[in-house]
Amino acid sequence: MSKLIGLTGGIATGKSLVSDYLNEQGIPIIDADLITHQVEAKGTAGLRALAEVFGDQMIQTNGELDRQALGKIVFNDPSKLKRLVRVIDPFIRAEIFKQIDHYFDAPLVVLDAPTLYENGYAHLVDQVIVVYCDPVTQLHRLMKRNKLSIVHATKRIKNQWPLQTKCDLADTIIYNSDSIPETLAQVKTWLASQTK
Question: What is the C-alpha to C-alpha distance for residues 27 and 106, in angstroms, rounded to an integer?
Fold first, then answer.
């Protein structure tokens, strides 16, 4: 593999827009959120590990993880969020490495991970792109997307690393406060610089 690119940002900043566009251009995406859902799926060792730590009430009657119940616990208590990461991260990390090996011959591969820095994945990549939008836009997008009150949306944002801190560490920043075409124009410019 010639380049592994880390793609991150804050919740509701528009990272998926950038990831989807890159995928449409034929670039393989290793999606940490999707991997998380897979390793926490019904009947998996990851789900059993979560139930051991957070209790069987985290599992719905159909055998699947109750994400809302778990979210209410971990997004209101930073220590429990750290505990969640400690429990589930080994399962996620193993699948990420498996997919990196799978795409070894691709010229560009993107690791799309909202917690790229927080979970220590940044050292795996050759460069990092952070998708940024202004705090007011981020808050309104999150409230609308997840149907959250301003209080709950603010808590979720504050439970993440500050977006400015991620920007300070990034190799490239994609600004996504304005229109989709303006955002994608920046992505196209970045992509052209990688394929020269």
Answer: 8
Q: How far is the C-alpha of 25 from the C-alpha of 28, rounded, in Å? A: 9
- Of 21 and 75, the one with more pLDDT: 21
| Cα 125 from Cα 43, distance rounded (Å) | 31
pLDDT digits (tens, 9 = 90+) for 70-126: 988 887 788 898 899 999 999 999 999 999 999 999 999 999 999 999 999 999 999
Dihedral pair phi/psi, residue 46, rounded to 5°? -65, -45
Which residues are CB-neighbours of 16 under 8 A, at least 6 positions away? none
Residue type, 59: I
Residue type at position 176 = N
Query: 52: buried, middle or exposed (CB in 10 Å: 19+, 13-18, 0-12)?
Result: exposed
Q: How far apart are CA 164 and CA 10, in angstroms?
A: 10
Q: Which residues contact 36 (CB under 8 A, 6 or more apart)?
A: 88, 92
pTM of the prediction?
A: 0.90
Q: Are 121 and 8 in contact (CB under 8 A)?
A: no
Query: Residue 66 and residue 61: Cα distance in Å, rounded?
Result: 9
pLDDT tens-digit series, residues 116-162: 999 999 999 999 999 999 999 999 999 999 999 999 899 888 888 99
Q: How many Cβ atoms from other residues are within 10 Å of residue 190's Cβ?
A: 18
Tokens representing 158?
A: 């504050």
